[in-house]
Design goal:
single chain, 227 residues, alpha/beta, 5-stranded parallel sheet, 8 helices
């Protein structure tokens, strides 16, 4: 099941019809309240979520989804008519898996949904608790908890995913384009500064452990290799 959260009825019906025509089960929701009512009945494979909605905006709904362990694993694609970098970065930083700018074609929508479903396959499957320690840095990968020298550090979802990728691949250098593709889900043409901004804030939040994330000039970033 895919939920299409869109308050414009004709657009919502077209999205649902298109998805059903290519083999997906799909249902339309006109508001956040309607979405959460449907979530109580059935968890979907993915949510296509419009930003501009009548009761509460899509970003607020996204934060509610990501803060609830019942729904946090569900892939979300944000649909926005604004198309501003602020909306794109904010949505992705708060946990969206992709975004699509209105007006968009139905073929593009289907392609984006299939790509996100492939990328998120297996998300939500319970795994053994895994804790990684590097110097005074400790990260619980299952509970998304980070501490430095015993003090909890609060990271955004994208900051955590960056840190996790580095920790699981110590010594491996990742280009900005590779990080954008792996963490944000697809290539941002000309927007690699998004990575630099997140790396900078990640280092600041990690404090004394921030130096573990190394810059390889002209290439990208890596986690300092284990000794």
């Amino acid at each position: 099941m895919i939920y299409c959260v869109e308050d414009e009825q004709n657009i919502c019906e077209l999205e649902v019809y298109t998805l059903q025509s290519v083999g997906f089960e799909a249902k339309g929701c006109s508001s956040g309240n309607e979405l959460f009512a449907e979530l109580e009945k059935e968890l979907p494979k993915l949510i296509l979520l419009d930003i501009m909605l009548p009761d509460e905006d899509g970003l607020t709904i996204l934060r509610r989804l990501r803060s609830d362990e019942r729904y946090a694993h569900i892939p979300v694609i944000m649909a926005t008519a604004k198309g501003t970098e602020f909306d794109k970065v904010k949505g992705l930083d708060w946990g969206a898996d992709d975004y699509i700018a209105k007006p968009f074609g139905m073929l593009e929508m289907v392609a984006r949904i299939k790509a996100v479903l492939r990328r998120c396959e297996g998300r939500g499957v319970q795994q053994a608790v895994q804790i990684i320690k590097r110097d005074n840095l400790e990260v619980n990968l299952e509970e998304h908890k980070v501490s430095v020298a015993g003090q909890e550090v609060v990271l955004t979802l994208k900051e955590f995913e960056l840190l996790k990728k580095f920790l699981l691949n110590p010594g491996i250098v990742f280009s900005r384009d590779k990080l954008l593709n792996d963490i944000w889900g697809y290539e941002f043409t000309g927007e690699t500064r998004t990575v630099d901004v997140h790396i900078r804030t990640l280092r600041q939040k990690l404090g004394s452990a921030g130096d573990l994330v190394e810059t390889i000039r002209g290439v990208g970033y890596r986690m300092a290799a284990t000794k």
